[in-house]
Amino acid sequence: xxxxxxxxxxxxxxxxxxxxxxxxxxxxxxxxxxxxxxxxxxxxxxxxxxxxxxxxxxxxxxxxxxxxxxxxxxxxxxxxxxxxxxxxxxxxxxxxxxxxxxxxxxx
Length: 107
Fold this sequence. Notes:
This protein has helices at residues 9-21, 28-35, 39-55, 61-106.
């Protein structure tokens, strides 16, 4: 038996749902990079979720669809927040460069 995962069950479920929502169009590594884990961690989580689902029943397919959508939206939200921080940094660099060149042109 392996060691206990450092990730919360909710986080693992969201990551698995995000991968499944991709419908095979994205690799483990691509989805894992969006979520912030390794590809192997995601692959193991998907495998474990499949084993658990095989023994259980799926009475609520609508809830499963909502979970997948929620996982996808959370991952997209994280990506957008990271991109916003990068854009803020780029704007600051451009603002300082514009000030520098404006000062050079006046001199």
